[in-house]
Amino acid sequence: MQTLYMQEFQKIVGAENVLTGQEDLFCYSYDATPGYSHLPEAVIIPENVQQVSAILRLANQHEIPVYPRGSGTNLSAGCVPLKGGIVLLMNRFDHIIDVDLENLVVVTEPGVIVADLNNIAAKHGLIYPPDPGTVATATLGGTIAENAGGLRGLKYGVSKHYVMGLEVVLANGDILHTGGRNVKDVSGYDLTKLFTGSEGTLGVITQATLKLVPAPECKKSIMAVFKNLDNAGKTVAGIIAAKITPATLEIMDNATIRTVEDYAHVGLPLDAEAVLLIEVDGMPEVVAKEANEVLRVLKTNHADDIQVAQNDAERDKLWAARRAALPALAKLRPTTYVEDATVPRSKVPEFLREVSRIAKEFNVTIGTFGHAGDGNMHPTIVCDSRDLKEMESVKKAMNEIFLSAIKLGGTLSGEHGIGLGKLPWMEQQHGSKVMDAMKSIKRALDPNLILNPGKLVGEC
Ligand SMILES: Cc1cc2nc3c(=O)[nH]c(=O)nc-3n(C[C@H](O)[C@H](O)[C@H](O)COP(=O)(O)OP(=O)(O)OC[C@H]3O[C@@H](n4cnc5c(N)ncnc54)[C@H](O)[C@@H]3O)c2cc1C
What we know:
This protein is of the alpha+beta class. The chain is built from 14 helices and 18 strands.
């Protein structure tokens, strides 16, 4: 990048907010996704919307790529500055602007950490439901841009269900305001939903109006062990058929159970084919009724062991197994790929069996855990990225996993987004006409292709 442009950027945000040292550039060359890195030419840290607008106007004029970044915890290489240019770090946008208790909305800047919003909401008996495993580090901007979900997605949905309005800066520097505090708003195209989940490819989010909901008064957690995977599958279907929507309905497969037991010694039987963790929440009377119904479905479907938490300490103990799933798998080998292929929930047992077959066929280690209630699985491949031969097998296994999810009527991503990692299968899932429509939207809003180029829709 020419020194002249760098001086212009320094004028906009101050020299101290334009980082060009090699160590700084290295720190922003990668994110939480293994296997991708590229040095940017500068890291720019704006603090207000006018600065973002001026930066984008200049970048657009000179066709300099811009990569918005929150905390860099995404798992789809969404922040990797693949074509050099600028990393636009949004962490200084860290203010909550308004907590509106009459409308149950909050207006916030995108650099606020998800857990910080929830701590403020909790003081008012409210929650912001999207709860990725990274709540303590991920930013609201990153979660909105990825359309992130989490453990309670079955009942509460993902980020798009809570984003009511956005302030977005387009590639040409124009500042847009979409949506607002209206519960009902069908005026025009739903641009709020378009920018939510757009992974920094259509605009930079500088403010968001988010819906808060009342915190559940009471929760009940139940863990069930199954020696037979089909019985676990029938239980998931049975709970939904009984018209119960648990906040959480998680599953771990045998490979994950063995790894967790070895790591955390929580007492899981090594021959179990599946463990389900179920949590119902709401008013105490409803929770009691739903928990009883869940127990009935578990018994009907021959759960081999059932544990019900009677208090917070016991709830914590049940959750320990699920919490240990990712760290236990990650500890096995130096490199961890956490995927999030998603299938209709009725297909979860079939998908888990497919993943076990793929692991055997390609001789790679895969543990699968995830959100059985909404079919969002996390096949987790552990390997060593320095072993090129092993990586060939990992690539083949990944290809088979995504193809089998698509074949089962599923999708490439339930919550982690597409970024770079899942691009090769996008056309397979959506077909060429849908891809063309997505690319047209990209070209219309960002004709010089400066915003996170090469991601989500690929080259345009
Ligand atoms: C251990 C672990 C567990 C995880 N668990 C979950 C989980 O349970 N559920 C889940 O959904 N995800 C999960 N994730 C993935 C990740 O935490 C989420 O994708 C999160 O939303 C990323 O937030 P971030 O602030 O780190 O965003 P970043 O990684 O910085 O950015 C993510 C994307 O958003 C874009 N972006 C960032 N800020 C803006 C902005 N202001 N305007 C426009 N675009 C922007 C970036 O360009 C990038 O494409 C997990 C990740 C890890 C490492």
